[in-house]
Sulfide reductase
Amino acid sequence: MPEEMNLLMFSGDYDKAMAGLILANSAREIDVDVTMFFSFWGLWLLRDPDKISNEDKTVYEKMFSTFSPKGAEDLPLSKMNFNGVGKKLLVEMIDDNHAPHLIHFLKGARKKNVKFYGCKLSMEIMGFKEEELIPELEIVDAKTYLKSALQSNMQLFI
Amino acid sequence: MPEEMNLLMFSGDYDKAMAGLILANSAREIDVDVTMFFSFWGLWLLRDPDKISNEDKTVYEKMFSTFSPKGAEDLPLSKMNFNGVGKKLLVEMIDDNHAPHLIHFLKGARKKNVKFYGCKLSMEIMGFKEEELIPELEIVDAKTYLKSALQSNMQLFI
Amino acid sequence: MPEEMNLLMFSGDYDKAMAGLILANSAREIDVDVTMFFSFWGLWLLRDPDKISNEDKTVYEKMFSTFSPKGAEDLPLSKMNFNGVGKKLLVEMIDDNHAPHLIHFLKGARKKNVKFYGCKLSMEIMGFKEEELIPELEIVDAKTYLKSALQSNMQLFI
């Protein structure tokens, strides 16, 4: 049986999402199965900037949508963000090293058959619709996450 | 033997505490044993607002107690807290979905026999007394946490 | 075979680093093998304040170095830092309890043969040189981390 890694992606930070997706890509390259469960702010990472819509949303959900980052490249840093200036500096340093951006690691994970789970309750509370997020995403509840995590060889909360 | 999940609750954020307690409740519902070890800011979650006392505390401990959130519902968000406004917005969105508040998930976990461990060193440094926190809490050291975590099927640092 | 704990040290916070290092020291005291993998802000913890240098660095790397905390004792708190005042208060409370500082837990972990891994990609992007960090550090890639983590009995992302 192949080994398995399970990542709970909770945070909506550029740097933490980068850490999670680098691990996901590296694991697939050594034939480890990967499941990523996106909950709360973690869902920001999966927003498709071209499919964001305010249809069928309450006033609160519209406000929340407006203040939320619009997909992977729009995420802030967890530290030294300095209103976006620190983030820009970090991305320049990534470019100087010819390293990929977050969106490239996300594309890599999608190509390499990482399993994408989205938290049902978070989706409902935040008012995100499935069609606004990446198409690979399967919406599941906490029990489905737990069963998958319990049978994995390692689990991280990111 | 039943499966077991171990959560190290470090953060004192409403949203992260919610994630931990939803997992704890869901795990119990599928017969998974759960141990939660509360350290540092995680202890805020277990303060009983009616039992907070400044007796036998140093000046620093009193200051620390005053600046600390007073129990589960008083915790801030890890993101978009906006001095409490973002937190209120999120709680309204939770209510709109008829979803439970953090305090209800905490009550659920207590009823479902989740094991509550509190970090001895954190209690001493922060000056929290056992009688100020929920009565189920058992104060243990890091080694007791480690032994419990090592024999679990999954461990998360939240 | 001895049991093994693997910690991914991502955050550069005094309190979270303290949690990780207390666990590492406690684990060694009960004969559990420990590997710590430092990535992103986690590398700040390992800077030697006496060996920080701007030689061979780009303008961005110099700026980044200047804004980064200079080793363990210089790290901020993840919460209630209040521009350093909250951090000072916490350290006073640690002293009142005759508990060790972060730097002492780091020394303990080094003496007790904790394995120190540093993330190659983070080092390159942030422009940190090996000679600026503690000498025990071995620079490895994400796959080396993953292989070590997958064979461990528990893994945490801190």
Remarks:
- The helical segments of chain A are 14-29, 59-67, 85-96, 102-111, 120-126, 142-150.
